[in-house]
Design goal:
Layout lengths: L2 H18 L6 H18 L4 H13 L4 H14 L2 H14 L1 H16 L2 H14 L4 E2 L2 E2 H11 L3 H15 L10 H13 L3 H14 L4 H13 L5 H13 L20 H5 L2
Antiparallel strand pairs: 1-2
Length: 269
Amino acid sequence: MKSIPLLLLLMINAFTDAWAQPDCASQQVQDSLFHNYAQKARTFGPESLGWDTTFDSLLAICPNIAEAYQEKGIRQMFLGNFRKMIAYNDTAVALDPRRWLAYRGYLHCMLAKDYEKAIADLLAAEQLTPNAFTMDHTFSFFVAISHMESGHYQESEKYFQKDIAQQKRGEGRNDIHFNSLLYFGILYYLMNEFDQAERKLSECLQLYEMHPLANYYMAMTLKITGNQRQSVYFEKARQAIQDGYALNEPNLRFARFPRQVSLEDIERR
């Protein structure tokens, strides 16, 4: 009779061990655990320490969940600690490069402003997942911006062309992202190719008439070429900023896209 309680105890221990030690190699288990802990983290928000401790609890169970490290990086983004943000994303990339390498390239480009690392990450990501997107853009878009901000204008032009060509794949009926056209226009402005700049900025404004940067750089282009329509675009740029129009990109609270302007810039033109 004494053997029955012992057997029952062994069964209880077996079930307890199975519950306490999930199969962390299973993607299904990882996804389920992450979903549950992410829901709890959202009750705190990334500015709260509770966000960190929630994902720390998850990683104590399964230390190989890449997305948990990426989420811990988001808290560091809110704190303005971009070095730690990148460090957490380094771990995410090591665990799941196909999913997180391009995103780290975006972070290097738009937040850390480390353009050399951004280009390296994004080109490597293109090899892993060709023709993919991150943060609403092709990888080539961020490569092009990185080259532009590094002064490599010919390389930047090549990657803006690739960015637009990728968006036109298939039947080619999709609108090009207006910020692809914006920054392609800004690149031509920097290259002193003002006809090309005007063409790209005009295409941008056809998609987003109150784009503050497109109006500003169109005005600057027309000013250089002596076109009196410049005043119309300067006024539209001023009105757009005053009315709250923006680039309409993710993470604008943290990711300052290059070549942005303020009302003071417009007044000083």
